[in-house]
Amino acid sequence: MQKYTRREVALMAGLLADKLIATYRNEQVPLMVDNFTSAGFTRAELLDDEDKLFQMLITAAYDRRPFSGAARGYEVIWGIRTRTGSIAETLDRLGLFTVEAVLGKSKEELAERLQGESYHEQSLATDGGKVEYARTLVDCARLVESGLRTQLANAETAEHVASIYKNLTTVHGIGDTIGAKLVKYLLREIGVGNVPPGCFPLSVVWPITQEYWVDDAVDKLTARVDVTLTPLVMGLLLKAEQPFAIDALFYLQRYGERDFDQLIDELRSIRAVTPTVQPPVPPGERAKVDQELARALLGVIEEILDAARSVSQQDVIHAGLQGIVSAKQIQGSARWLYDEMGKLAQEGQAGEMLAFYENCLRSERGQHVGWALDRLGRKSMESEAERFRSIYQSGVEASSAGTGPAAPIVRREAT
């Protein structure tokens, strides 16, 4: 496997974290809410009806292999779009889909009834391993009766989340991964309770990486990029207060494996724009050369900042961008870009400036603002990208020859 520097892996982690957050918020959460609504699991129903909550827990407990593989997807298990072939249909037909019905029978009676029923040619009594679903049914029913609905409704903090997760994982057949999925479904996506997106602790979120599709995606990232990439991404998601966005690996791998493979290729290509060997400049000249090149690169950023400052809200309205972006957002993003680049320029970190520029070009925020500036007929990171790269390359070549940056590298236009 090709080896990458720590800086390269960090840049890849930033790009991937941006992609996961955008995918999770804009695509996956709306899809999951729609799916659960079609299956009858809404916030109101889960809070109002103890049987609905019980049914969600037991369905999640069956949403594992071999059942999900035999049913060919979680959509069938959960009864999304159609109840035919779902766990709900099967357990309802057996009279085992309400709290009262389950607690009114002994575990032996439940086991006997489940043993005599197959689900897509799999016995409902066991997963073929350690799970005995008669125990799972009873544990789920008792947990719901013990006040889980109230606990979910009042959930607001990371401590509340951790307590709910602990209670869920006491159920026989609901381990760390299914417990994490249930927390994600109930508290993050369906929105039972009032838990902010950033209040889900790592100890609750991380087990989601053991889910079949997420685990497959993590294996790909480890094999093709670096073993530290996924933990770094998780750290960035926690910092961005979107930890469950790590589950977007499931969405990308299951619904667009080819696109996910292409995304990995794009991450790996960052090596092409990240300098790994410093040019052989005499020690006494290095600081001067780096400072000159960094100032030249910062000149391009100043032009983009000037372009952004020239945008008024009236310009935005005239271009038909009202409600999509504001002049204040454009100017704020450009100011942030200039400030961050300015810090690197002060240290003469020209290589870091190029890497940061490329990172911004790939980020969702950068693309959004760049698109708006292009629509407004102003200079943007996209319009100046080739010039920025050319300036950097010219500077590196000139410094390798011992002459310092080629002059003139850049000239500010008259304003």
Question: Please, could you describe this protein's structure?
Answer:
Helices cover 65% and strands 1% of the residues. By secondary structure, the chain is mostly helical. It has two domains: 1-274, no CATH class; 284-400, no CATH class. It has a two-stranded antiparallel ribbon with strand order 1-2. α1 runs parallel beside α20 and α15 (248-255) packs across α16.
Quick gist of this model?
The chain has helices at 6-38, 43-48, 50-62, 67-71, 74-78, 87-93, 99-103, 107-115, 133-153, 158-168, 176-189, 202-205, 212-224, 229-239, 248-255, 257-268, 283-309, 313-318, 327-346, 350-362, 364-375, 385-400, and strands at 118-119, 122-123. By secondary structure, it is mostly helical.
What are the main properties of this structure?
single chain, 415 residues, mainly alpha, two-stranded antiparallel ribbon, 2 strands, 1% strand, elongated, disordered C terminus
Please describe the topology of this protein.
Elements: H1 6-38, H2 43-48, H3 50-62, H4 67-71, H5 74-78, H6 87-93, H7 99-103, H8 107-115, E1 118-119, E2 122-123, H9 133-153, H10 158-168, H11 176-189, H12 202-205, H13 212-224, H14 229-239, H15 248-255, H16 257-268, H17 283-309, H18 313-318, H19 327-346, H20 350-362, H21 364-375, H22 385-400
Antiparallel strand pairs: 1-2
Helix pairs in contact: 1-14, 1-15, 1-20, 3-9, 8-9, 9-10, 10-11, 13-15, 15-16, 17-19, 17-22, 20-22
